[in-house]
Amino acid sequence: MTDDTLLDAIRHWVEVETPTGHVAGLTRLVQMVAADYAAIGAETEIIAGTGGQGPHLIARLNAGTSNAGILILSHLDTVHPVGTLADFPFQIKGDRAFGPGIYDMKAGAYIAMQAAGAAARSGTLSLPITHLFVSDEEIGSPTSQALIEDLARRSKYVLVTEPAREGGQIVIARKGVFRYRADAFGRPAHSGARHQDGRSAIAEIARLTLAFEALTDYDSGTTVNVGMIGGGTAANVVPAHAYAEIDLRVDNLAAARAVEDFVAGYRPHDPDVRLQITGGLNRPPYETSPAIQDLFTTAATIAQDIGFTLKGLKTGGGSDGNFTAALAPTLDGLGADGAGGHTLEEYIRVSSLTERLRLLQGLMERLT
């Protein structure tokens, strides 16, 4: 397929708005993807959504073999709310194609489907291909995580079609992601007449914020961001409730355990304030293993044959690859090259589509 042909098909996917939780839009796109995959000979299975989320789709090629095969992971949900398309329509400007979700990750999902079909038609495919499309990745895959992990345990390799990074490079490691919410419950009082009777929940959250932020250690790769805080009812009332939302990233499982120990042992500064911390590890660290390094070497060789140089990067962002890296060798960032994910300027490089498709197809054909 030419870049123009690919781009025209990708446009149809982009023009179905699919923010996480928009069940109607996600259902429509899942049905479109299932039809597209069936047209190239795949067996498809739509899994009904749960928990207010959209459905998931499994497509299988070369399913007759009993060998552990290749799992391709894609997501169809985006961060852009319904109505975004009106202000940020699909458009092409030179080598850039713009549109909500085109970079993260509808273009990558589409070219992976076409690569799978081409690999199956080539007659050189020795492993079965399972392509899973989920509808809730942007919120941490709460309804698809178990399915992702189950399929990964039965696979020999995992290829994730998150967008390429840094000019076409792929991802071989990601940080683990913690999400916490802390709620402090103090005692209200008039701030002038009976200040001594109050117990400030905001003061407690402020101390907790500083304690969490102190965990940031760039040398070890641990970063903390207390991204939201709130509380209180009026300036002249000692606040009885306050909260904080915390995002925490770690490089490895040892650092993850240290965070969990810190949270388990944390106690409020004021014994009269009750502190409740909920949440935990949202995605485990995706660490580069020797098997992942070997898989990357294969990909780099294929890229060299195509005519470009591939590098493997570590990123702080999480993906569904975090769930699979410890279960099967995983390569991530195999989607289209571009930039601007999660913004109204996201785009793909049109000229990257064919080379990324050939890279994916080459992996599927060469892995045994």
TrEMBL record:
A Pfam family reported for this protein in Swiss-Prot or TrEMBL = Peptidase_M20
Report the active site residues: D77, E137 (proton acceptor)
InterPro entries referenced in this protein's UniProt entry, alphabetically: ArgE/DapE_CS, Bact_exopeptidase_dim_dom, Pept_M20_glutamate_carboxypep, Peptidase_M20, Peptidase_M20_dimer, Peptidase_M20A
Q: Please give the Gene Ontology molecular function terms for this protein.
A: carboxypeptidase activity; metal ion binding
Assigned keywords, A-Z: Carboxypeptidase, Hydrolase, Metal-binding, Plasmid, Protease, Zinc
The organism sits in which domain of life?
Bacteria
Which cofactor(s) does the record list? Zn(2+)
Q: Which residues form the Peptidase M20 dimerisation domain?
A: 172-261
Q: List the EC numbers from the record.
A: 3.4.17.11
This protein is called Peptidase dimerization domain protein
